[in-house]
Amino acid sequence: MNQICVIGAGTMGRGIAYLGAINGLEVTINDISQEALEQAKTYIEQTMHKSTEKGFISKERVEDYLSNLTYTEDLDKAVDQVDFVIEAVFENMELKINMFRQLDELCDNYTILATNTSTMSPTEIAASTSRPDQCIAMHFFNPVHKMKLIELIKGLDTSQETVEKAQELGRIMGKETVEVNEFPGFVTSRMNCLIGNEAMNMLMEGVASVEDIDKAMKLGLNHPMGPLELADLVGLDSRLRNMEYLHATLGEKYRPSPLLTKYVKSGRKGRKSGHGFYDYY
């Protein structure tokens, strides 16, 4: 396994591409937007140079790593003869299903199709293809190059061979993996969304300030990042979509906090908009 394609040049897609490139994989990044591809290229180059300054990768290898990356708007070209495709598009079921239909038609019959999703059903996505046994969900975490885990979520028809190939890709990328049987929210999102939602409700109720809620979780429960800080990092609009999906599939305890809904409607989306529970200007 040495050739992969990442579909989507947003925050997660470019992070996955960067991780693959510095671990010796040939990575093609595809997006429908040339601007998104250019932004991804800038991000990856800047991240790589920062990593050399901090001693995480050697300066002598930077050019080799950058040469592992190809950027293209042409989906047919992007998936030609690749071993593995990781879809990292917007967290929307219809969009993901349409993408998998296209990938199924364009990819070689040996290519594994993975969706990077934090909540959505790999079974439903895979059902749109003629190869559901070769489909799996790989849930990466942001920032991709720093977080140690990949959740591997098996759909109803995912084969053990596909699971093992996803585990192999995880090892190549220097990550630990956990194997999860499909259920809405998997392991991490199901737990994390509850914690974050309760933090938002406590803020709305005036229990404590943003800073003190996060400080309590970090110092009292040894979380590396507070739940409100983390929600800003993930994106409040993304968190709201996840909560709405979990509310629809798992019930009332996952009803989104009214404060989260209000923030998203006001345009406060976290780090990416410059303002969420914290200011980032």
From TrEMBL:
NAD(+) binds at G8, A9, G10, T11, M12, G13, D31, E91, K96, S118, N142, K272. Pfam families: 3HCDH, 3HCDH_N. InterPro entries: 3-OHacyl-CoA_DH, 3-OHacyl-CoA_DH_NAD-bd, 3HC_DH_C, 6-PGluconate_DH-like_C_sf, 6PGD_dom2, NAD(P)-bd_dom_sf. The keyword Oxidoreductase applies. One of its GO terms (molecular function) is NAD+ binding. Keywords: NAD, Oxidoreductase. This is 3-hydroxybutyryl-CoA dehydrogenase. It comes from Halobacillus mangrovi.
